[in-house]
Amino acid sequence: MKNNVPGAAVSIRCQFTFADGRCCRMPRHADHSSLCLFHAREELQLREAQRLGAEISASLNGDFLTATDINHVLGKLFTALAQNRVSSRNAATLAYIGQLLLQSLPNVKKEFEFNYDFDSWNQKLAEATPLSDPPSAPAPALLSSATPAEDS
Ligand SMILES: [Zn+2]
Question: How far is the CA of 82 from the centre of ligand 1 (A)?
Answer without folding.
Answer: 29
